[in-house]
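Reopening: structure tokens for the NAP complex, inputs below.
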Amino acid sequence: MEKVVVITGGNSGIGLAMAHQLAARGARVCLACRNQAKAAEARDLILAKTPSARIELYSLDLASFASIRQFASELAGRHDHIDVLINNAGAAPLTQQFTQEGFEMQFGGNYLGPFLLTHLLLPLLQAGVQHKGEARIVNVASIMHMFGRIRPDTFRGMKRYSPGSAYAQSKLANLMFSNALARRLPTGVTSQAMHPGGVDSEIWRDLPRPVYLMLKPFLITPERAGRLGADLALSAEHAGVNGGYYTAQWPRPLSRTARSHEAQDELYAASCELAGIPGLPVVRQG
Ligand SMILES: NC(=O)c1ccc[n+]([C@@H]2O[C@H](COP(=O)([O-])OP(=O)(O)OC[C@H]3O[C@@H](n4cnc5c(N)ncnc54)[C@H](OP(=O)(O)O)[C@@H]3O)[C@@H](O)[C@H]2O)c1
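Re-run output (same inputs, fresh job):
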């Protein structure tokens, strides 16, 4: 049976590679992207390599609650269920930027937006469980979470912006959310996280060229990272597996904060308040 997979930021880098592999494995892929011209290019690229691909394009800016809500309702208008949500989109701006709601862009766009989106799409994922017996959420985090600290005083901006700490905080939050969700999701829906590895993608676009060239030999291809994401989304091996953390390029350290239930629950409660949604109760211990 065809699986319906929603992927954020599927028009570039790891997301595009994942989208292609998902489509090649027979999934219907909903590309949720903020840049529609790039999304159409991505669709055409996938179709050129895999003519049987089924791709749908949606507009989504994770730095705007209105856009997230609009996307969730558009998706619900076109699908009575989804099988997989891949929270892949992320950015690492070198200068401080803000979301529509005034959150620092990396906290707001990389973490809080996907947090809200996931909750809004939960009814469609639960309907996926009715249709196919299971549904999955895959969260793209990063090894950089190891350097992250959750600092509520920076959620709305840093006095002295540090792009590295902002990125690390957002990726730690992604991983903590993935783990917090695994203890809260209704039966049949699972939450897994991944570090894609150091991947040669557009995310490095703002780095000075010599720095990028120094890093390049250590970076893996988006296709290699995309394979892991597509496996987590579709493979039988991962059916029913909840709360895992994987990588396409070792090592894969996992910070104490990311594992701490107490820290996860504190961030979860604060995020519900910031996103203006009721939280899910804990239903199992991870
Ligand atoms: N590359 C690495 O080494 C690495 C390592 C660890 C983790 N990651 C994570 O992997 C994920 C994918 O990154 P990538 O390396 O493939 O980078 P990328 O090529 O820059 O792709 C990032 C994607 O996210 C989208 N995006 C960013 N902000 C968005 C927003 N507010 N709303 C909607 N879409 C947004 C981008 O859209 P636009 O095209 O409009 O910019 C783009 O499609 C990210 O979560 C990143 O943190 C990457």
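The CA atoms of residues 10 and 16 lie 5 Å apart. The chain has one domain: 4-197+223-275. Marking as resolved unless the reporter disagrees.
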